[in-house]
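Record copied across here:
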Amino acid sequence: MSPETEMKAFGILVITRDPLSLGALWAMAESRCWKLTSVSTGWQALEHLKAHATTPLVVLDLTPGDADGLSTLGWLHRVRPELPIVVISHSVDPEQKQEVLRFGAKEYLVRPIDATALEHAIIPYVEPAEGGNRAYLDAEQIEAFGDETFFVAAGSNMRKLRNQIELLAQTDSPLLIVGESGTGKQLVARLVHKLSVRSGFRFAKVNCAVVSENILDTQIFGRSFATEDGSASVAGKLAGTQPGTVFFHGIEELSPDAQAKLLHHLQDEQLKKRELQSHPSARVLASLRDVGNGLQKKRLREDLYFHLSSFVLHIPPLRHRVEDIPFLLSYFMKQQAKLYGFPVRTISSSLAQACCRQPWPGNLVEMQELIKRYLVTGDEIMVLAELETTSGGKARLPETRDRDHSSNRLNNDLSAGLRSLVESAKATAERNAIASALMQTQWNRKAAARLLRVSYRTLLYKIEHYRMSPPVLHFSGYANGIALKGHRRSN
């Protein structure tokens, strides 16, 4: 996390000249997916607070000989008298404590920092719904609306998007929903429909990339055909859904002819609405993965884009909404456990931390599949290894503008070297244990799994991961039969 990181929900501003000395705070923030911003001077802190009015807490580290620390505390209290401030001191000084509390600090902690005391000092200000109210917070932040469909708005980005959805749901104009693959564009479309006056009518989805062009054309616009009794017609979704909502998922996948017909339809409906005042047409929503590529590669007609983009909703990728991750992990676990009939597994702090560091190129879809694998296998080590591989290693401590970058690189290199040694030793020990169990059971993998006290599926994964294979059987012919040399392979 860098000092330039934008403050979001559960954000903390840290004023310190030595961020590395606040390891307990960084560890707590990482486990709870908080966003930290580190600055070294009171002036930087004041500038930050001007730009981020929603900052819920400041941690001020008073180092020995820091004459500006108390002045900073006084200025902060004058600028934001309601802002909670936790002060960390390097010495037990009753006079300093009294002065700090007089300047408006809520808590006064003395080094060495006790993790429990730090937790009790900070959590009430950044997570007021901790503990017994967590279930209420989950219900408030995760909005479910049928068919396993839900919308999470725990962080500031998604709360802002939720407000935009509620506002745009009241209009009749076409709406374009833009976001990476797996971010939940269909979920947003369903929420727009749910919050609109059309919610009592049908919501129809057109997956523009799945079916053939002819079938898709019939699905959208309908068709007429001759019968023995005369003629008949099949209504397309645009006509059959009115006055509901039609969602075009992946609008850039429509053929040029279909895009032209859709454009003419929108123009005609707009004209009818002006003439009749209360024309009951279906509202059109469309999703697009990337506006730039769609237009530059001419996969989407410019005139259709301009017609659809009267209003645009941009869905942030999961890596830009870290505050939502703990809620999503919990929700996906409960959802998948109910779907597959498994008991809900606990998501440890280590797993939550790894998920917060994950870039999630597949966004919600990728996370849901990860939780499914963890639910079925119960192998947290496997899941953590998978996350570390895709995220490129563990997150580093935040850097400040004034930190010596060469020192930081040295610390990171030492840390990475030690971590690789530990992981290598752990992998070697695990492989040896598996090999020993397989030898004892003559490669009976089910028996070996029972011996190792792991699931059969987990053992199969480990065997494949370590590229282990049974010993080769050698055959020697005899007059009265065949003798086998080596271990017998069995399941």
Summary: The longest helix spans residues 405-440. The longest strand covers residues 283-288. The chain has three domains: 12-132, 141-316, 324-436. The chain has a mean pLDDT of 76.
